[in-house]
Amino acid sequence: MVDPYERSAEYLDLMIAGTWQSLGPALAEVLQQVKAGPGPVVDVGAGTGRGVQAICAALPGDDPVLAVEPSSAMRAVLLARVHDAPELRERVTVLAEDAVHASLPDGLRAIVAVNVLGHLPPAERQALWASAARRLAPGGAVVVSVTPPFAPEPVPRTRMASAAVGALHYEGWATAEPSGDDEITWRMDYRVLRDGRPLSEVTVDYRWWVASENRLAEEAAEAGLVIRPAGKPDLGLHLLTRSGE
C-alpha cells in the first residue's frame, strides 16, 4: 500500500504545531476524566508524537504508553521526538502497526485516536470499537476527535496552516471532493516560499471516510460502548466508555 505521508511527512509536524497548542491541553483535560486507574495507554495513529507528549503530561508516572503508527515517514519524527525527551523515552514504545492489527494488551487505561477516524473505513472503525470494548480496563475510555465534514461534500480550498523557519515560509492548503458514498478525497498542497516566491510544492491526496456523530454512536453501541462529547465543542473531542460505566 502506498504511504501518502512518505511525501508529506517533511511538512506535517510543522503544519499541525499551531493546532496542538489548543488540542494538547484539551486532550490532557479529557484524559483526566477517565475513571480507570493506572495502566497502559495507547495512542492510535500517533503521527509525529504531539499526542504522545500530551498523554504523558496528562498522566504523569511510569504507566507505559504505546504509540501505534503505520507510516515509516511519520515514525521517523515520532521516534526522534520520543528519544530526545527523557520523560518520554522511559515509558513510550513506538509500534510499527496500524489501528486494527496492533498487538495490544488487556487492561488499557485509555485508547487515544485523535485525527484518526477518517483514515478508517467503516469496517475498521467497528473493529476498533470491538477491540476497545474487550481490552479497556474497568472505567477505561477511548478518546476520539469527531470533526467535519460529516458527509461526503466538497470542501473549498483553504489555507490550513503556515509557519516560518529561518528564511523560508511554509504553507499547507487543503481542498476535498466526494469520492464515494461515505468517503472524500483530501488534496493537500504543501508550499515552500522565500521572500514570497515559491521554491517548491508537494501535492498529496488522502482518502478520508466520513461519519456523523449519530452513525458513530450506532457503531459504538453495537460494541457495547457509548459516546459523548468531552471538552471544548470546537475541538470535537469525544469519550467512548462501556455502557453503565
From TrEMBL:
<feature type="domain" description="Methyltransferase">
    <location>
        <begin position="41"/>
        <end position="140"/>
    </location>
</feature>
<dbReference type="Pfam" id="PF13649">
    <property type="entry name" value="Methyltransf_25"/>
</dbReference>
<keyword id="KW-0489">Methyltransferase</keyword>
<dbReference type="GO" id="GO:0032259">
    <property type="term" value="P:methylation"/>
</dbReference>
<dbReference type="InterPro" id="IPR029063">
    <property type="entry name" value="SAM-dependent_MTases_sf"/>
</dbReference>
<protein>
    <submittedName>
        <fullName>Class I SAM-dependent methyltransferase</fullName>
    </submittedName>
</protein>
<keyword id="KW-0808">Transferase</keyword>
<dbReference type="InterPro" id="IPR041698">
    <property type="entry name" value="Methyltransf_25"/>
</dbReference>
<dbReference type="GO" id="GO:0008168">
    <property type="term" value="F:methyltransferase activity"/>
</dbReference>
